[in-house]
Amino acid sequence: METIDLTTLRNFSRRTGQATHPELLDARPMEHVNKIEIDEEHVTIEFDEKTTRYYNANEIVKREWVYKYNDDPEFVKAVAKVIEVARKHLKDLPDNVACPPGCAECCSGYEPFVSRADVQRIADHLGMSYADVMREYVVNRPSADGFHVGWLRKVSEDLSDKCVFLMGSRSGRYYCGIYEARPHDCGDFTPIGCDDVDESLSHKGEYKTGAPFKPNRKRGRGKRL
Ligand code: SF4
Ligand code: SF4
After folding, report:
1. 3-class DSSP state for residue 192?
2. How far, in Å, CA of 154 to CA of 174, rounded?
3. What 3-state DSSP class applies to 66?
4. 2 C-alpha to center of ligand 2: Å?
5. pLDDT of residue 169
6. Is the CB of 166 under 6 A from ligand 1?
7. How many Å lie between the centroid of ligand 1 and the Cα of residue 163?
8. Residue closest by Cα to atom 4 of ligand 2
9. Atom of ligand 1 nearest to the CA of 190
10. Domains of the chain, residue spans
């Protein structure tokens, strides 16, 4: 994998008003780039602005972004380099990729990291306080850069066990109990190249998920179906 040193962007950001730290740079538009054109004045990027993932189809809104670089060509060269790498790695991405409905194998054995924003969103969704969500559902392990505050708990101490928010175990088909508020780590997860897929499940047919996750205020940890 190719690595780019984004720290040089800091030199330019003071003058241009761009993000002052690489982590703050909004690189999301670069994640689904379809086309890039670079001429002497502009970088033009066509990308998928919004992908709505349904269980067996993706709805994609496309957009074009033109960056005019006048007195900061080096900044744009750096951005263009990042985009080139993104394009190189994602150019084979098909428009419509989806997991078989009910699979969720990756919701076991994988710890989604959560940021403060993720925890707050889950707290708002469940009608709980930030502190309660941290205590009940998050293993408190701040990352070195302070961005992540920990990862979501499993239903047991075994890290290969199911995510505490995974629902549907009785039916054998699973779904996320906090889907609208799930961590960015989960939303960004992709089935491309996934080896853990439950191949016994079909992509066809409707899959009706059940009730959402409800916190169990008496016992803590919450109610799973
Ligand atoms: S196909 Fe892979 S990525 Fe999709 S739900 Fe199953 S295990 Fe997760
Ligand atoms: S929050 Fe939802 S999507 Fe994320 S691991 Fe848990 S059950 Fe899966």
Report:
1. coil
2. 15
3. strand
4. 30
5. 74
6. no
7. 14
8. 186
9. 3
10. 6-90, 100-225
DSSP 162: B
CB 60 within 8 A of CB 95: yes
Q: What is the pTM of this model?
A: 0.61
- If you measure from the C-alpha of residue 214 to the centroid of ligand 2, how many angstroms do you get, rounded to a whole number? 14
Q: Which two tokens stand for residue 182?
A: 């799930």
Q: Which two tokens stand for residue 67?
A: 């960056």
CB 46 within 8 A of CB 33: yes
Share of the chain above pLDDT 70, in %: 59
- Residue 92 CB-half CA count within 13 A: 3
Task: Grade residue 201 by pLDDT with cuts at 50, 70 and 90.
Answer: confident
Q: How far is CA 173 from CA 102, 170, 176, in A?
A: 4, 8, 11
> What is the band of 176 on the pLDDT scale with cuts at 50, 70, 90?
very high
Query: Strand 113-115 and strand 166-167: pairing?
Result: unpaired
Phi, psi of 83 (to 5 degrees): -65, -40
Sign of the Cα pseudo-torsion (148, 139, 125, 155, in order): positive
Residue nearest to atom 2 of ligand 1 (CA): 197
C-beta neighbour count of 1 within 10 angstroms: 4
Segment (H or E) for 121: helix 116-126
- Order across the sheet with 113-115: list the strands: 113-115, 148-152, 138-140
